[in-house]
Design brief:
single chain; 368 residues; alpha/beta; 15 helices; 10 strands
């Protein structure tokens, strides 16, 4: 296992992290604990979860796993999150989390899922930063972190607060362009950088032919996608959502066989991405210039799900908009077909046509 600095905290974290949102059988605690122990014995020491994963059951599983790790003297860091923004709400949630996780303090506690700057301003008004500072002073959390889906350089407004020690953000082989400015800002501040969705939510391994440009040493596309991220020296942890013991073993095998590439090799892979992902929006965000305020990059990201998702998702676009971006399809109807976005698109994507298609559909909801 390779370990890197988590920002300037003094903590050394495994570059392969354990994500707790994809257990196949979350109520089979013995199976889940075996997965956690296998990862820890393989050198993984960063374990990430959240109260919304399986309605807090993931945190409960983690608590039992951490107890077993302590018995075996296996080191670990606990990372979790909160959507709450008021002091009373955060304290109430954290109290439950500490009990479920069976720990005295959370190592890396995240303000969860910032998707828009106005949302961030509202949480600040509620006192989220003041509360996080208090919790750290009280020793209930050790490091203040944030989970962000902001694109381009919007994340700079968060980082200007000077309070965050690490950032959890999306970055992978098919969306790295839209996240590069955010990543650069994180690097500039020398913060811990934890990457989520390294396999594009399963998109990359489901379409090995599309992502064959990642392969350097004859490895399978999943291993290649992880290696692509590990080749970024400023990424602290690549977080994989494990669903079974086999998935844990597979990721550990990828780690064992990992051969670091050069910067030139990494640059070459990135250069190939544009040509290889024909029709798939690579997220450069040059189209983010809509006079009507339509968040075009976010809609194009959702449209990628239609192009790349396996056939069992009847409405991959709507599901992505609902869960990932908190958007409704109807917002795409604001498009007046002025054409500015298509003029700016370096991939020559039919953005207007895609927006029209999205806007004509019904919104997806969990009950649908």
């Amino acid at each position: 296992m390779i370990y890197r600095n988590y920002g300037q905290t003094g903590k050394k974290v495994s570059i392969l992290g354990f994500g707790g949102m994809r257990f196949d059988h979350v109520d089979d605690h013995d199976e889940c604990i075996r997965m956690m122990i296998a990862a820890a014995e393989g050198g993984v020491n960063y374990f990430d979860t959240a109260p919304g994963y399986f309605e807090t059951r993931s945190e409960t599983v983690y608590g039992k796993g951490f107890a077993e790790m302590r018995k075996r003297n296996l080191p670990y860091y606990a990372a979790t999150k909160t959507f709450e923004s008021t002091e009373s709400g955060i304290r109430r949630e954290l109290e439950g989390q500490l009990k479920r996780l069976n720990i005295d303090a959370v190592d890396f506690y995240h303000i969860w899922c910032i998707t828009a700057l106005d949302e961030w301003q509202n949480r600040k008004k509620d006192g989220v930063l003041k509360t996080f500072r208090k919790l750290k002073e009280e020793g209930l959390i050790k490091h203040i972190c944030v989970s962000s889906h902001l694109i381009k350089n919007e994340i700079k407004e968060l980082l200007m607060e000077g309070v965050f020690e690490g950032v959890l953000f999306g970055y992978c082989a098919y969306n790295f362009q839209t996240r590069q400015e955010a990543f650069d800002a994180i690097k500039e501040k020398k913060l811990g950088a934890v990457v989520m969705n390294p396999l594009g939510g399963g998109i990359i391994p489901q379409h090995p032919e599309v992502f064959s440009f990642l392969r350097r040493h004859g490895e399978d596309v999943t291993t290649a996608a992880l290696s692509f991220l590990w080749d970024h020296p400023d990424i602290s942890v690549v977080l994989v959502g494990f669903n079974s013991i086999d998935s844990v073993k597979g990721a550990l095998a990828a780690m064992d066989g990992y051969k670091p590439g050069t910067q030139a090799e990494l640059d070459a892979i990135k250069a190939k991405a544009g040509a290889s992902l024909e029709g798939v929006c690579t997220g450069c965000a040059y189209c983010d210039n809509c006079p009507q305020g339509v968040p075009i990059p976010l809609f194009m990201d959702a449209y990628n799900q239609k192009l790349l998702s396996i056939g069992n998702k009847a409405d991959a676009i709507g599901e992505r908009l609902y869960w990932h971006w908190k958007l409704k399809k109807s917002e795409a109807e604001k498009c007046t077909a002025c054409g500015l976005c298509e003029k700016a698109c370096t991939q020559h994507i039919n953005i207007i046509e895609r927006l029209k298609e999205i806007g004509s559909g019904k919104d997806w909801t969990p009950a649908a």
